[in-house]
Design a protein that fits this description.
By secondary structure, this protein is mainly beta. The chain contains two helices and eleven strands. The chain is 9% helix and 67% strand. The longest helix is centred in the first third of the chain and has 17 residues. The N and C termini lie far apart (41 Å).
Length: 251
């Protein structure tokens, strides 16, 4: 909970700091489009419950590297003047080992197919800052398998829900160099879908041509969602994180 409020406070302070620069943002009369496909390696840390069966996943960074599975992402943004629209697609196949409740040593394995499809409106706050606002459709297919000293059991389930989201993107100013960096910070859910969700997504890139760049980064996406109770309880309180790389194209 303390980590959640620190992320929310950081985003609020970022918005307040960027607002005075909004009046200085130059208006443009042409559309500028950015497309960025990524590949991502991801790991899990947290708790998931499917049909009342709970598994605790706790993977260190070294565990993430050993159990790396790949996911695909795609970002698109179209801006004209101070306004724009954008989308963010994430699809990840995740695998992890953990522990489950029970008498004696109970191990658990979790296989997740996680999709997140975000749609944004974009408002320019200044030459190096944008405000994002919109919604993310989350879909999750989960399989938990428990191996105990006596029995083996499994649980399967799937859920889809929608989270309202608001975020800020900060980037380095254009100075004619070949290197650039940016960071995207987001909060959402607010009890409408997830209880709370947050994201931090920094990247560093190098220009290959005038319209193409190579991008490297790391993404943290935390989701705290639950529905139902007892044997119908579905809970996903998990931090997904991992390195990524991709290409950026500007039109």
């Amino acid at each position: 909970m303390r980590q959640t409020w620190l992320v929310a406070l950081s985003l609020l302070l970022t918005i307040m700091a960027a607002l005075p620069a909004a009046a200085q943002a130059p208006a443009g009369d042409v559309w500028k489009i950015t497309v960025a496909p990524y590949f991502m390696g991801a790991g899990l840390t947290g708790t998931t419950v499917v049909k009342g069966q709970e598994a605790t996943i706790d993977m260190s960074f070294s565990d993430i590297l050993k159990n790396l599975q790949f996911g695909a992402m795609g970002l698109v943004a179209a801006r004209k003047g101070n306004w724009g629209v954008g989308g963010d697609v994430i699809w990840m196949s995740l695998g992890a080992n953990g522990t489950g409740p029970g008498v004696g040593l109970v191990t658990a394995s979790a296989d997740m197919n996680q999709g997140a499809f975000a749609f944004y409106g974009i408002r320019r706050l200044g030459p190096s800052a944008d405000l994002f606002f919109g919604a993310r459709v989350n879909t999750l297919q989960a399989n938990l398998r428990f191996n105990g000293p006596i029995t083996v059991r499994s649980a399967d389930g799937s859920k889809t829900w929608v989270d309202p989201i608001v975020g800020v993107q900060l980037r380095t100013p254009k100075n004619g160099g070949h290197w650039h960096a940016q960071v995207y910070t987001e909060i959402g859910g607010f009890g409408a879908g997830s209880t709370f969700t947050w994201q931090i997504f920094p990247t560093v890139g190098v220009d290959l041509t005038k319209r193409a760049s190579l991008e490297f980064g790391y993404r943290w996406l935390d989701i705290d969602y639950s529905s139902g109770d007892n044997t119908t309880l579905f809970k996903y309180d998990v931090l997904t994180q991992g390195p990524l790389f991709g290409l950026g194209f500007r039109f």
